[in-house]
Every structure is written in C-alpha cells, then in structure tokens.
Design brief:
The chain is of the alpha/beta class and 379 residues long. It has nine helices and 14 strands.
Amino acid sequence: GPLLPLARAGGPLALAGAAAVAGVGLARLLDLAWRRRPAAALGGAGALGLLAVGVLCCRALGGGVPAGHVAAAAVQGGGRRGLTSLQAPPTSVFAATLAASARLGPRDGGLVLWPEDAVPLNVPFARSGIRRVLAGVARRLGATLLAGVTAPRGATRFVNEIVVFSPSGQLIGRYEKVHPVPFGEYVPGRGFLRHLVSLAAVPRDMVRGRRVGVLVTPVARVGVLLSFESFFPDLARAEVRGGAGALLVATNTASYATAQVPDEELAASRLDAVACGRFLLQAATVGESALITPDGRVVAPTRLGAPGLVRVTLGLRRSGTPYTALGDWPAVALAAAAGALGEVAALGSRTRRRRARPAASAGVGRGLDRRTAKEVGAP
C-alpha cells in the first residue's frame, strides 16, 4: 500500500502505527460529513498530511544505488499443493527441483537458489549420496549453489539448513534455521502434550541454529532466511548489519492448498526488502518465487504449482536504511510520545469537566430554590 516506504524508517512497527494513524485520520475527516465537527476534521487532515510527508521523505531512503550486480536464478520445482512433508514422496520434491535446474545453463547465473526442503533426506547429509549430485549441479552451471536440506540428527530431532557449494563443487558453507514453526517443526511441551493428543504429524523437533544467516560466497556476501524466518524482520536487519549485500529467502509452502500462505510469505519478504533496502530473491518449492526490489516491487513471479525459473540480475548494496541502523526504537519512541500526549490531553479534559461540574450544579440548585420560593409565595 501507499504507506510501505515508512518501513524504511521504523520497520513493521512504524508501518503498523502509520496504518492506525491513517485510520483515525480518515475517521476524523468523516466526522465533518456526518457530525459537522470541523475541529476533529482538521486534526484528521493534519495527521494524514504528516503521513504523506513522511512517505515522501522515506521514498528517498532506499539504501543507495547498487554497488555491484550478480546474475542469479531461483529454482521452483513445482508439484502438488496441499501435501505435508509426510504425505509427499521425498524423492519427488528433489526430482522436480533437479529437473527444473536442468533448464539452466552456465550463463544463467553466478548464484543459484534452491528452495527450503528441496533435498529431504532420511540420513545425515554428510553420509548422503545426494551431496555428490549437488556438487555436480554446481560444477555444471559454474555457479554458487545454495540448496535447502532437511536431514535427521539423532532419533528424535532433525536439522533444516541451507548448504552452499562453490562453482568447483566444494561444500563451502551452511546455515541452520533459527526460528522453527511451532507445531510444524517442533511441538512446545511435547512431553506433556503427547499424553493428550497424537503428535504423529510432527514426529521430530527441529534443532535450532545459533548464528545469523550471513554467508560468504564466491560471488557475494548474502543473508539467508528460511521460510518462517521472513516474518522476523530483526533477522533480516541483523544480516544486513552483518554485511549482506542482498537477501535470499528459501521456503516450502507445499502443504498449503490455497494461495493465502504463499501470498503472506511473499508479502513478508516484500516488507523485509523495503525495510532493509535490499534486493531479495525468493525460491519456493511450489510457489511463489520472485525477485523483490528495495522499493517492494515483485519481478518475474512464478505460478503456484507449476515448475518455474526466476532468472534475474541481483543488485548488491552496501548502505542501509534508518531501520537497519536503529531498529524498532524510532517507532517505539513515537508510540510512547503519542501515548504520553494522549494521557496529558485526557487528564486536562477530565480536570476541565471536574471544574465545570460544581458551578453547573450550583446554578441548578439556585434555580430550583427560586422556583420553589415563588411557588410558596415567599417575597
């Protein structure tokens, strides 16, 4: 919407606060039409005017011009939607992603991004033969390959990570997901809940990662977010502060039959791109994959359920936005100031009402006394 640029100044909190102020401002303007209250309408117009000025100012805070570019591609294997990871054959996800990657050539990208869970394993990654397959893909393309892998870690836990292969086929980095999905990738209070309900749909808990997802690759320093993590802007901010010139989101939305969650995921990625002033490339197993520019535009989106490739030029930036520098503090400070002013105004209003009440009561009493006296014939 029109308020989106404000995220550059204060992130999601600033955007939410601006939406609230805009709603109140519009309501005050409507007071002029229905209740004919010019003072309220003037206040509403002032609030909307300040928001408009803020939006115009924030349009200039996009993070500067790109310091470099890299050819990149996001791979979407496609397939059936509405299936959980337990219902979908693991080999079908990997095969679909591999088949879509076969349409890429050495000139299509210096960086290739596979989705989250594109490589679902039933053995640890180090012992899997698929490791050699991924190395072969990187060598064939002459590109840095980032692929989403899920693999067991012991009998009751698993790891969800991004592995990085260099153009020569060497494993050069990995990032483990920090924010698991409650009741999707882990069960809070599993020891208690297993006595009450069946937890067969989530048989294992994800091992949480412990570090920020900044990966140094042969083509660029990038920040990686895995699926649910795109809803935590502080993670994207930490990656930009850690030197990430671009953001990558790998996600798996295959278990959702409707477009609601894929659309929400894309919207969260747009907010991250705008708040941090970075180009963002998103790869999803069955959609939606796209490039998002620092002003929130969605470029080359794929269709849900269909195989797809997003071939783009990924801009790399060094400078940030006020949000990357200050975080949520500006929005929190403005909210606290507005709350304090509201309390002062309310206190003043209550004080004026208390002072006016005795005088009004006295007047009413005197009036009654005079009328009573007249009725009884007193002089």
